[in-house]
Design goal:
This protein is of the alpha+beta class and 158 residues long. The protein is built from five helices and three strands; from the N terminus they run βββααααα. The radius of gyration is 18 Å and the shape is globular.
Length: 158
């Protein structure tokens, strides 16, 4: 699936209008393009998430990100080298205030862009931010595999 601004015949972007591309029957099925208007980008991403869930056939699991942290950290303590585990802890200290109380079903690419902008304003380097988001991606995949949430419906923007 993809979201992009809607354009008129001359190639001009139409304000508050978006095109959502998706394949209801999977990659080999027919492509569907849905045009939505009078919504902002965040609302378009939320609509895209709803469409993904609808066609995936799985019900969303509503839990907070923080609910999965203790189990993931315990697994990390067992599977990572001590220096890597310390790196995980440092990243989670930065991620938790922003994402901890969010529902898994409420995560959208726009939210990750806001996190990146906030960290850049704090003077943090892009490489550090990407490392933090990589660990968040790992957390999300672990949480999905262990029943805390559904698998990520999009790739975290880094």
């Amino acid at each position: 699936m993809a979201i992009r601004p809607n354009k008129d015949r001359k190639g001009n972007i139409i304000p508050r209008s978006w095109v959502i591309d998706y394949y209801p029957q999977g990659r080999k099925g027919q492509r569907v393009q849905q045009v939505v208007s009078d919504i902002n980008e965040a609302e378009a991403y939320e609509l895209e998430l709803q469409l993904r869930r609808q066609y995936r056939g799985t019900a969303p699991i509503n839990g907070k990100v923080a609910d999965a942290l203790p189990g993931w950290l315990a697994a990390g303590r067992n599977n990572y080298q001590p220096s890597t585990y310390r790196d995980v802890l440092n990243c989670i200290k930065k991620l938790t205030p922003f994402f901890g109380q969010k529902l898994w079903t409420g995560l959208a690419p726009v939210l990750f862009e806001k996190y990146k902008a906030q960290r850049l304003e704090e003077g943090v380097g892009k490489r550090t931010i990407n490392k933090e988001l990589t660990w968040f991606s790992s957390l999300w995949k672990w949480a999905a595999a262990n029943g805390y949430c559904n698998p990520p419906p999009f790739r975290i923007p880094m």
